[in-house]
Amino acid sequence: MANKDLYDWTSFTDNEDSLSLIGHMIRWGMAPEKYRDKDTFKAVALSDSYELASNEAMAIDGGSTNPEGGSSSRLAFKGRIIGDNSPHSFLPNPCDPGWPGNAESTWRTISLHTTFLNTSTTKVTPVTRGDIVLVKLKRSGPAYNLEYGTFEELISVEDPTAGANEECSALVDLFGAITHTAFNVGTSSPVRTGGPPVPPGEKYSPDSPRAGLDRSKTKCASRSKATAETEAFFSAVQPKEFDDIRQVAMFGKNNWRYQQPDLGELANFIKNKGVKRVIRLNGNSAGDLKYSYDSQTGLCVGIDLEKQFCEWLDSTVEVKKVSAHAGFRIGQGYTRSIEQCNEWFDLGDTLIHCTHGADRTGFTVAAWLKKQAEAGVEGFATLPAGGRYNGGYPGGGDATNGEALWDYTTSYNSWKATICKNADLGYVAYLDGFYNAKDFCEFGERATTCAACKSKHFAAVWTMDHSKLNKESPEWETMRDKGYWEWTDKAKTKWRWRFKKSGGD
After folding, report:
1. How high is the pLDDT of residue 218?
2. Which long-range contacts (CB under 8 A, 24 or more apart) does 381-384 make?
3. Do residues 59 and 148 share a domain?
4. Per-residue pLDDT averaged across 10-35, rounded?
């Protein structure tokens, strides 16, 4: 049976096809063991051979390939096992003469089949659509690995046509006539790198996401280590347009804000936008890395890899990690975080980003814009246009005004919900960096309508006169016990405020 995590069930949107798929799976699962110790099968190729990137080959089976391609490259193709009781019987068959699928469904179905790898880098046998091949699957108990297998030999070279009621005619309709050379879309090179054939109507380029490796769907839990091998992949990276134009913006002195960029987007900032410095506010935790996947290399972009790539691209580019939670002061926010970002904002040509380009990035940018306006720096009296979150912010507001800064910042994030509906004081601590939280809560009707402003936790942190409290006093310890603050060292000499939803009763 198939690996349960292999198939994206959301691809099956047609009711009839979905029911058919379920039926096939049930019949396969309830049937007696069909192959015993068999691991070699006859299959039909559903795509032509394509060259694996070096990191792809390493990730799949630990094998390697020449990053430059050529005679020592690893090839792969999509294939379907044929014959009675095929392990692929629960998937629609695009080689069926009566296949009714359009180009989109054909492509989607092909992408769900097994990827078969040529095991050799010295003996390369190109395969084309419709060819009959011998393949091998790995088996563990009663289960086969249907994600990856190996190509053993070419049994017969076939020439499917696009004629009606012909086997594999859909593959010709989708990708063009058979040429018996390595399949290529949108380029002139004989072998295309980077993954299986791209969907119909989409020209392949180095920054085209591979099927199943879309950044929005592929999450990173740990960073890729910066090594000589990862650097070898950088030459394939091309500048690309930004995935989320809502979050990308220039905010003065050629300073830019964005979410976690992939390597192609970093190349765009450096080569096309004139960026010379990069501030990274997110770290290497699973949450911070979640959306760091790079579709051109397959790498997960942690701090060290981001720095390695930027310096490889341009040795004059500087990258620094800044903590977004340093030096909190009531009424001033995270002062050290703001100061460290301002150092490079003042120089200009700086990209700042966190994971989403919304919260951490948001308060540091707003704090700097306010500082520039208060200092009377030319061109900073009014705020730039904001993002498109909740309709966007048109720009032009007074850059010294807390409400205008609030509107600008929340055009990139969801603070209106997290602060005033969910009473999450962690975001209030960000806000405090450019809009005194006490003043924020006293504006208009927020004292009675905003959940954060109404919470006892907020009152204890932002409105209590802490100067009259002795850290050794019972009142101070009571505040600790209620979760308003905590010790940060074993000697109990350092402490910090705790920000959470409501609480403190």
Report:
1. 64
2. 383/408, 384/249, 384/250, 384/251, 384/252, 384/408
3. yes
4. 51
| Residue 182 within any structural domain of the chain | no
Count of beta carbons in the 10 Å neighbourhood of residue 12: 20
The number of folded domains in the chain is 3
Question: Which pLDDT belongs to residue 331?
Answer: 92
Pair of tokens at residue 144: 């086969």
How many other C-beta atoms can be found within 10 angstroms of the C-beta atom of residue 493?
9
Burial class of residue 309 (count of CB atoms within 10 Å of its CB; 0-12, 13-18, 19+): buried
What are all long-range contacts of 303-306, with beta carbons under 8 Å and residues at least 24 apart? 303/223, 304/223, 304/225, 304/226, 305/223, 305/224, 305/225, 305/226, 305/230, 306/266, 306/278, 306/280
Interacting residues of 445 by C-beta distance below 8 A, sequence separation 6+: none
Three-state DSSP at 114 gives strand
- Asked if 300 and 372 count as a contact pair (C-beta separation under 8 A), the reply is no
Predicted pLDDT at 55: 58
Closest CA to 89 of 163, 156, 2: 2
Identify the burial level of 15 via C-beta atoms within 10 angstroms of its C-beta, where 0-12 means exposed, 13-18 middle and 19 or more buried.
exposed
Give the residue numbers spanning the domain of 480: 466-497
Q: What letter does residue 467 receive in the DSSP assignment?
A: G
CATH assignment of the domain containing 265: 3.90.190
Does residue 16 sit within a domain? yes
Any domain includes 451: no
The radius of gyration of the chain's CA atoms, rounded to the nearest angstrom, is: 28
DSSP state of 333: E
Give CA 226 to chain center in angstroms: 18
Question: SS3 for 70-111, per residue?
Answer: HHHCCEEEEEEECCCCCCCCCCCCCCCCCCCCCHHHHHHHHH
CA angle 479, 484, 489 (to 5 degrees): 95
Which phi-psi region, left, alpha or beta, contains residue 176 (left: φ > 0; alpha: ψ -120 to 50)? Answer: left
CA gap 294, 462 in Å, rounded: 42
Q: How far is CA 424 from CA 323, 329, 360, in A?
A: 20, 18, 15
The most distant pair of C-alpha atoms in the chain lies apart, rounded to whole Å, by 88
Single out the residue in 413, 437, 453 at which a domain terminates.
413
Kindly tell me if the per-residue pLDDT of 458 is higher than 70: yes
**CA nearest to 106, candidates 209, 206, 208, 11:** 11
Cα 328 versus chain centre, distance: 30
pLDDT band of residue 495 (cuts 50, 70, 90) is confident
- Rounded to a whole number, what is the distance in angstroms from the first to the last CA of the chain? 54
In angstroms, rounded to a whole number, what is the distance separating the alpha carbons of residues 304 and 319? 9
263, 135: one domain: no
